[in-house]
Every structure is written in structure tokens, then in C-alpha cells.
Amino acid sequence: MDECSLAIDNCTENAATCANTDGSYMCACHNGYSGDGVTCEDIDECSLAMDNCTENVAICTNTVGSYICACKDGYIGNGVTCEACSWTFTQPGAVGEYLIANGESATFTVRVAGENLTTGYPLTWKYNDDWLAILWYSPGAGFEELRSNSRVTTSSGLIDHSLIISSVGESDDGAKITVVSGGCSSNAVSPTITLRIASDDTTSIVPTTADVDVDECNLYTFPCSDSEMCVNTIGAYYCECINGYSASVDGCIPLMCPTVDVPCNQQDALISLCDSAMNAIISVTFPSSRAGYTVTSVTKCSSDTPNVNTPLGSRMCQPDGTWGSVTWLGSCATALTDVATEAIETEEQREQVAASLQILTSNIEQLTVNDLSVTSEAITNITSSASSISATTATSVISTISNILESPALTSSNRTSTFLAQLDTVASLVELQSSQQFKAVSNNVALLVTSGNASDGDVTMIMVVRPDTAAHGFRSDQFTLSNTSASSGTVVDGQRVQASINVPREAIGASKLSVNAIGNRDNQFPTSHNVILPPNADQEDIVSLTTLIISATIDNESLFNFPPGAVVQYSLPASHGSAPQDSKCVFWNESTDSWSDKGCRLAGSTVNALTCSCDHLTNFAALLRPRPDAEDPPEPTPLDIVTIVGCSLSTFALLILVMLFLCVPKTRSGRKFQGSFLLLNLSIALLGLNLTILISEMPFIAYADHYDAISTSCQTLAVFLHIFLLASCAWMNCEGVMLFLAVV
Description:
Mean pLDDT: 76
Oligomer: single chain
CATH class of the largest domain: Mainly Beta
Structural class: alpha+beta
């Protein structure tokens, strides 16, 4: 009997090799493991100095069964071989600020520095955020131009490359000439020079100040792309790819986990699952995926099962581009209603029920209102019979709720508040790890939980920007808990903050705090049709809900009326085309299933973000007033038309009156002069008043906020309006006095 092929041996799975012998078998640990084959333990080659990484210039990282070598900053290679590499300016020769006359050209030259370089790597010139030239450097062969911008000319040598900017424009704003080395992008090698146009006829490049360092990473405009983090250096900065992306000639590209097949005979439970699919399958296939995201299997339950077209499992592609563990469906024969009523006696059973629920709800388009009701019952079944749940169970339930919030059936189910409450229940029951924290991120929901004893200060959840989250959902490394406050648009650890929520220490105490984010990808959360605002609020303007909803609860309670001075602050990005200054800070009122602004106020706003303060904890969002399309201004109202026509006729008549006074001599002599003079001044005052009103009705003034006009124009018109109105009243009073004297 061949115990190895029948998989009845007791060799350590995935870590040992089974060899069949006459009447028995032998187990032997794989390379990278130690033991007798039945028990195999990972060898830490790094700590035991068994690696072959380059000494002193490479970092060794232990992995299960192996290790990884990576070159340190300032070096390039595969970790086994590392070479020093850097770029240095040889012309002008120093990092700093340089002046150049308008219309002249400027030459910048960079030299590659390194000993015994054998590996080619790219060089990119940038002018502010625009690329100018992309080249490839090969030792011994020099530079090869891959792409070039018509704005510049270049010349190359074996170790030098020069770039000549023939036109620098007509602005005296500083433009940064940056060298970005793709092959060394993880290292500190991005010299930057600031180029300014001189106000005089200076024709030569003259260095000015080069001693003051500016943190370019924290300027108003983030200098790197969404797939890069910014690293400030003295006199410069450089952009390097974030985790989950790798450098290439075309910039940072996402790491991908390859398509993988998991054999059905890998474990007994999987054999049973494959059999229940009734497809005669021998393996389960997971498609290629971006790093940081979860995908479901291509292999699905057959039409002969209750769960037709349901995936057999889901799997996360981790940020480093390797596959994580699999969440398996219990059985293709187990329907959603069976999961809701299944008896749970052990935590292992609870984890399997939660995993099955996650997979059964993954076909979001096929979910019905009844399915959502059954899912809610199943979550209650998982959480109600336990004083605590494992992190694995909690992660599966959170993924289930994420699926539900994307289901089109959610709107008509009226169960939004129910699922939000169950999310809070999961947070209150989950067992915290040794770090006193728990984090789970799915495509549409992220939950972070921490103990109040884990921090001495305020707690801030920070969500950083990641590329294409609107299309792909949240990334697993997008959220962190910090004691440092941050707001949308700021930079933390070289990464731009998309949203944040800060909870004061006074409100947390020693309790368990949970914060979560909902949104990004096609969530069906109720928007403007469920809004409760004060009577004076402009309901017609409030029509857009921010795509991101963040919340905070303490021990599963939404606390109201904080201690004096203690407020929750949350910051959200403002969507394109909205008017943040007129937005409303709101929270989800679970008792009325509607949005309310009670206890919340707008604390600040910019073009790209808004910050809100609230005196309680719950689910927060913002309702944005949309700004009309600049190409389609609002139509004038009937009152506008009447105003324009009336003031135009009045202006015409007043002009005739003034012309008569100036052209007819009789009006300026004798007894008629005094009355005519008063009438002339009143006419001029009324004429100025009419003209001011007509100008205020012009589109670029009437809809100044629509055209992003500066408010100074409105203020100026208001001043003239008051002057002419007061002048008109004054001359009318004079007319009245003269009439009184004439009669009496």
C-alpha cells in the first residue's frame, strides 16, 4: 500500500516530503525546515546567519521555509548581489534655487555614480509633476532614450546625461527639476533643483539660496502619485512605490498574485467540498489578483446543488504579492437558510459557519430581500451564543456585511441599521490580539478595534490614499490607528490621508473603542432621500452623500453628550464639483433610519476636504451641496427678468432727463434752476443705483460661487449699492424740504 499517494501519512503538510517504502513510508523535512518529518519547524536562516545576503548592504527577512534578501537604501540588486547607485547633478552642481531669464534655455546634467555596476536601471527627468524624458542606463553602453517630451532636447554620454529646457514659460513661479531613478526608487536618490524665471535680463544660471530645506511632501499639492509615497530629503524629495507596487519604466505598477490551483486532495474537508460541487473537479482555481485585495474562486457549485454558481472559497492576495490563506465554503449542499439555523457548539464550528456565510453572500447581484433577512438571522446566530468570537470569525462576518452593503436589495430591505448594529456587535465581541488591537479590511468595510488601555492619548483612525479604490474597494493596508491627529489631504509617514476620525481620550477611558469605514465601491447606503435637517436648511441643495462613511463606538454604544470640551473630529474628502463650505456634517440616526446633523457642525473646509466636529459617537458622513456645471449656469428666474427690464427702462428715462438738463439752457437759469438742480442730482443717484443693480444681475456676479469668482466683486457692488441708495434718499429728502417750503 502506498501511504503517500493515498495521503494517509502523518508527514507535516507543505513542510515535509513523503517517500513510500516497502510496507511503510518515510517523512523528511523540506529545505528550510528542521525536524523528523512528522514535526517540522521553520529555520530562521537570518538570525542563524545561514543566508547568502550581501553582508552590511542587504537586509535578510525570514519567511516560512526560506528567506528573502533585499538591498538597503542606496544600493541596487537582488539582495545576494548589491551595488551602490546614485544620481548626482554635475551642472549646475548644487541642489538649490536658480534664476533664468524668460525665453532663455537652461541645461541640467546628471551623472550616474557607482562602482562595478552590472545592472541597468531607468532614469526619469521631471519638470514639476510632468515627465520630460525617460531613459535607460546600461553600464558600459550609456543612456538609451525611451521617451522624450517635445519641450526639451537631450544629450547622452557613458556616465552623463544632459537635459536642455528650451522654454520655461512666462511665470516666475518655481518649477522643480527632479531626477527620479526608477531602479533606485526605494533608495534616497532623487536630487531636486528649483528653477525660477528672473525679473530682469539675467541670462546665466546663478545660484541663490540653497540652505533652507522645504518639506515638499507636506505642500498643498502632494508631489507623488497615488501609487507612491513621498520621502523628504535635505533640499529635495523623492517618490517611492508604496507597498504592493513595484517600480518600472512606466512608473509604479501593482504587484499581482498569479492564478493558482488548490488540489482537492490537500485536506479531508476540501475533498468533501469538491465532491459536494458535483462537477467532478480535482482542484479549485483562484484567479490572478492585485495585491491587497480578496477574490473568490473561479470554481463554483454546479447547477445540481442548492448554491448554484456559488464560489467554493475566497482568498486574499497579500500586499507583498503572495497568496494568503483560503476561506472555504462548508458545502455546496448547505443553503443560506441552513446556515442561519445551524447549531454552534464550538469556536471551530462558529468559524466555519461564518466562512460559509461570507461565501454564500458573495454573489451580491443575486441576493434578494429575503436573503438579506436570512443573513441577518445567521449573523445573530453566530454572535448571540458567544461571550467572545475569534478574529477569524469576526473577519468573515465583516466581509459578509461588506457584501450586503453592496447588494441592490439593501435599499428595499430597510435593514441598514440592523447590519450597522451587528457590525458594532462584532467589534464588541472580537478577541483582541497581544497588541490590544484588531483590524479587518474587506472590499467595502474596514473595522479597527483597540483597547482603551493600549493608548494614553486620543485615538485616530487614518485612511491613506490608495490607487483605484473606487473600482477595486478598500486595500488591506489602507487603515491604521495612531495617536497623531490628521485630516484629509495632509501627509502622514509620506502618504496622503484620504479620511480620518479622532476620538478624545476623555470619551474612551478603559473601554473598547471600535472605528470603521464604509463606502468606496457601489455601496447602497441611503443618501439624500433620508435626511432630517433643521427647518432653515436648504433641502433642495443637499443632494449628495460623501461616498465614505466613518463611525466610532465605545463598547457597542453610540455615546451622546461628551464631557465639556471633548469632541469627535472626522475629516472626509470633498467630491469633485461640490461646495464644501455649504456642506452639512451628519450622522446616521438608527432610531429613525435617516441622516441628522444634531450635535455636529462644520469645523473647517477646503476645496478638497472638510472637517466636522460632533459631541457624540455613531456613523458619520457629510452631505455635499453640488456646485452647478460651469458650462451650464442656472437659468434666470422671472424676478430676475422683471428686474433687468424695469431697471433698463428706468435707466433709459433717467439718461434722457440728464441730457435735457445739459442740453436745454432754460433748465439751468432763473427760478427753475433750484428745482432742476435737485432733480438732476436725484436722477444721477437713481441712475447709479440702477446700473449697480443691472451689473449685479450679470451671470459672473449673480452666480459668483458657480464661476469660482472672488467675493471681492460682490463686496464692491454692495458698497456702491449702499452709496447710491443713501444718495437717492438724501436728494429725495431735499426735494421734500423744498416742496414743504414752497407750499407753506
